[in-house]
């Protein structure tokens, strides 16, 4: 998000129309993901009119700082509850906040990015407990139904023109979806370049494609090429894309890091030390590409790729933290990636709220200090050493272990 000044103006647009915001879904599904500041900010903005206002009164009302406001807004943008646009008005900066309604039970559960992250944060048992509160009762299935049907009551003539015309403006009503960084317009354009007609996929299918692409860090062009053989032209609208096959193809494509794009969160580590370089590498590469680097550019085994998918999708560990976890586990477990060990570390990272590689490595370093263990020795044979991340001064750390690791990875 662009930095906000208290003197900048903002304007709200309720893109969900007259649909009421479901507080139960917002509280149960979104509050654990976005936090209390973002929760309060979203509710406050739903009460705003469409005129422009300065940010200062809003920030004062919420009782938060500008930094906390920006963090809260970023969380709302990430889960799709708000889309932010910026422009100018009367010589001042204008932020336009487009609000979207939270997803209800089934829609939220089918969003692999949102539901997967929430499962990782709360645990499967707690997620199921919350999810069950939103399930409705099943209709009676052991008795005869005598309800009157719509055609029997209204006796409509379905061939009339007003049944066939499309209501204008419905596409303006929007529900929230996790921000994946995937450009569905560019993806659709690539499909057209392959000879497929414009608009062949539904909005829901495009959303799923974006989630898969974000998970595996794959570009819009490659996703279009992978999708081509997964689209059935004669299938009904909304069911033309075989998502299971597409996910499998995307999974295989992770073995080709040059075709992938990664938009992981940065640790903002500067400097030319080997420690800083390794942290930046963890931030920049997708987990599959990072593991390939750890294996001297040999493709990862399928079971290890499946583990990375499990950590990212099911447990909700961010990509940079997955890379740090892989780096740490290889050193601690003799170049092995045991599932139970990795799951335990992943759950701890999620509970700690780690978002960057530095966050994760700092957590591992604190854990080592609590156990009063000596620093991990330089590599033996092909082991990758753990690089301790200092709490304050990066230059206090010797780069000897990292240098040896990088020489073995990239050559002398």
How is the topology of this model organized?
Layout: E1 9-14, H1 23-34, H2 36-46, E2 53-54, H3 55-62, H4 66-78, E3 82-89, E4 92-99, H5 105-110, H6 112-122, H7 124-133, H8 150-154, H9 161-164, H10 184-193, H11 203-216, H12 220-228, H13 243-253, H14 274-284, H15 287-294, H16 302-314, H17 319-332, H18 339-352, H19 357-370, H20 400-410
Parallel strand pairs: 1-4
Antiparallel strand pairs: 1-2, 3-4
Helix pairs in contact: 1-2, 1-6, 2-4, 6-7, 10-12, 11-13, 14-17, 15-17, 17-18, 17-19
Plain-language structure description:
The longest helix is centred in the middle third of the chain and has 14 residues, at 203-216. This protein is 51% helix and 6% strand. The protein is mainly alpha-helical. Helix 1 crosses helix 2 (36-46), helix 10 (184-193) crosses helix 12 (220-228) and helix 15 (287-294) packs parallel to helix 17 (319-332). It contains 20 helices and 4 strands. Among the domains are: 9-105, Winged helix-like DNA-binding domain superfamily/Winged helix DNA-binding domain (Arc Repressor Mutant, subunit A, Orthogonal Bundle), CATH 1.10.10; 274-410, no CATH class.
């Amino acid at each position: 998000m662009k930095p906000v000044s208290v003197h900048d103006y903002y304007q709200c647009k309720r893109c969900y129309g007259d649909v009421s915001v479901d507080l139960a879904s917002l509280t149960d599904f979104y509050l654990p993901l976005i936090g209390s500041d973002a929760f309060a900010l979203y509710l406050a903005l739903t009460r705003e009119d469409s005129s422009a206002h300065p940010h200062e009164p809003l920030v004062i009302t919420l009782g938060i700082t500008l930094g906390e406001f920006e963090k809260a807004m970023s969380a709302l943008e990430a889960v799709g509850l708000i889309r932010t646009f910026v422009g100018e008005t009367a010589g001042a900066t204008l932020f336009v906040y487009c609000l979207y309604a939270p997803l209800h039970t089934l829609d939220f559960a089918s969003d692999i990015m949102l539901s997967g992250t929430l499962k990782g944060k709360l645990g499967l048992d707690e997620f199921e407990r919350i999810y069950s509160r939103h399930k409705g009762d099943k209709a009676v299935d052991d008795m005869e139904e005598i309800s009157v049907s719509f055609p029997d009551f209204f006796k409509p003539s379905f061939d009339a023109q007003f049944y066939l015309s499309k209501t204008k403006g419905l596409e303006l009503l929007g529900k929230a979806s996790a921000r994946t960084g995937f450009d569905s317009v560019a993806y659709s354009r690539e499909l057209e370049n392959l000879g497929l007609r414009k608009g062949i996929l539904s909005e829901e299918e495009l959303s799923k494609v974006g989630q898969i692409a974000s998970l595996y860090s794959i570009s819009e062009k490659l996703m279009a090429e992978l999708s081509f053989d997964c689209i059935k032209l004669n299938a009904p609208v909304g069911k033309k894309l075989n998502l299971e096959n597409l996910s499998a193809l995307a999974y295989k494509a992770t073995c080709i890091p040059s075709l992938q794009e990664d938009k992981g969160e940065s640790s903002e580590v500067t400097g030319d030390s080997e420690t800083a370089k390794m942290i930046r590498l963890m931030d920049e590469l997708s987990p599959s590409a990072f593991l390939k680097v750890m294996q001297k550019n040999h493709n990862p085994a399928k079971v290890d790729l499946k583990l990375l998918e499990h950590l990212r999708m099911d447990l909700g560990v961010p990509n940079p933290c997955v890379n740090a976890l892989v780096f740490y586990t290889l050193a601690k477990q003799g170049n092995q990636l045991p599932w139970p060990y990795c799951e335990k570390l992943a759950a701890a990272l999620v509970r700690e709220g780690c978002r960057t590689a530095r966050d994760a490595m700092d957590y591992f370093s604190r854990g080592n200090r609590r156990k009063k263990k000596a620093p991990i020795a330089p590599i033996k044979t092909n082991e990758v050493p753990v690089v301790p991340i200092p709490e304050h001064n990066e230059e206090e750390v010797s780069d000897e272990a990292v240098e040896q690791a990088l020489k073995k990875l990239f050559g002398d």
